[in-house]
Design goal:
Helix content: 40-55%
Low-confidence stretches: none
Oligomer: single chain
Number of domains: 1
Shape: globular
CATH class: Alpha Beta
Strand order of the largest sheet: 3-2-1-4-5-6-9
Bound molecules: NADP nicotinamide-adenine-dinucleotide phosphate
Structural class: alpha/beta
Radius of gyration: 18 Å
Number of strands: 9
Order of helices and strands: EHEHEHEHEHEEHEHEHH
Largest sheet: 7 strands, parallel
CATH superfamily: NAD(P)-binding Rossmann-like Domain
Distance between the termini: 51 Å
Length: 277
């Protein structure tokens, strides 16, 4: 399926995985709307992609602000008259000792990762329905499948995105609109994991593994072409462990804790030290 001329709106396109996704779609000659708060970084990416022949619109957007989301959709339609693919990628991490979290940190994580995605999708869907065509990609995480300790708020938002995606798929089946939840493990060249490695000096264990921003971007393109309900992007493959967890929840939890808890606690400790908590 050719993506040439398709209009792809990507949130969180200024860095990490989102930047890689934009670059991949540009190679397919898609028209791009790039959204994030850092307008300078978006403009720099836009200059690179435009020089290589892409049509790009930059819209400074805070996805936790409903007014920004309305303007984002308005400007996208004004420029391209349609949105074929919405990639809800913007997100922030939240690896902390839960009892240390401030209320506004919890709210900001939920509003950015979950509420922003739901509201933006609500604004875009009517325009997709008009054309009986559209793809929603929601950037979840393996943390939404099995949440590690010290990341309960982050995991809750990602589990929420997986549920939201399932509901959309069921509701719009047969009406031209599909949705996929992408669930990457810890992702090299994504800002979130790279900052964790930097702050702790440690990588994840081999058993937990991980992936790369390029692999996640490739998965997004594959999802647009094949519309699966969900894609887990990780090496080594973790789906067998997740199936095991469904059958034997306590054993699954034990295994997940064994491979992820120490790393997640290190990140939370480093964040606590940095914040002086
Ligand atoms: N890296 C990983 O290990 C990993 C694993 C699984 C899932 N994920 C998910 O993948 C996505 C991207 O992660 P990443 O590692 O690439 O992170 P990143 O490098 O920190 O990039 C995050 C992106 O989100 C944008 N963003 C953050 N808050 C925003 C807001 N309020 N409004 C608009 N944009 C906002 C940032 O742009 P501005 O700061 O310019 O606004 C940036 O473009 C996230 O949803 C994350 O949860 C990451």
């Amino acid at each position: 399926m050719s993506l040439q001329g398709q209009v792809v709106l990507i949130t969180g396109a200024s860095a990490g995985i989102g930047r890689e996704i934009a670059t991949r779609f540009a190679k397919e000659r898609a028209c791009l709307v790039l959204a994030a708060r850092s307008e300078d970084k978006l403009q720099q990416l836009s200059d690179e992609l435009t020089a290589a022949g892409s049509e790009v619109l930059v819209v400074r957007t805070d996805v936790s602000d409903p007014n920004d989301l309305m303007l984002l959709v308005e400007k996208s339609l004004e420029r391209f008259q349609k949105i074929d693919v919405l990639v809800n990628n913007a997100g922030v991490d939240c690896f902390h000792h839960f009892e240390h979290l401030e209320m506004d940190e919890i709210l900001q994580t939920i509003e950015t990762n979950l509420t922003g995605t739901i509201l933006l999708t609500r604004l875009v869907i009517p325009h997709m329905l008009e054309k009986s065509r559209g793809t929603i990609i929601n950037m979840a995480s393996t943390a939404g499948k099995q949440c590690p300790g010290f990341a309960s708020v982050y995991g809750a938002t990602k589990a929420g995105l997986i549920g939201f995606t399932q509901g959309l798929r069921s509701e719009y089946e047969g009406r031209g609109i599909t949705a996929t939840a992408i669930c990457p493990g810890f992702t090299q060249d994504g800002g979130i994991y790279d900052r964790m490695v930097q702050s702790t000096g440690k990588k994840t264990s081999f058993a937990l593994g991980g992936t790369s921003a390029i692999a996640v971007a490739n998965a997004v393109l594959k999802a647009v072409r094949t519309s699966p309900p969900e894609m887990i992007v990780n090496w080594p493959p973790v789906r067998p462990a997740m199936i095991l967890k469904e059958i034997f929840p306590r054993l699954g939890e034990m295994l997940a804790n064994a491979v992820s808890r120490k790393f997640a606690k290190r990140v939370a400790d480093a964040n606590a030290a940095e914040a002086g908590r």
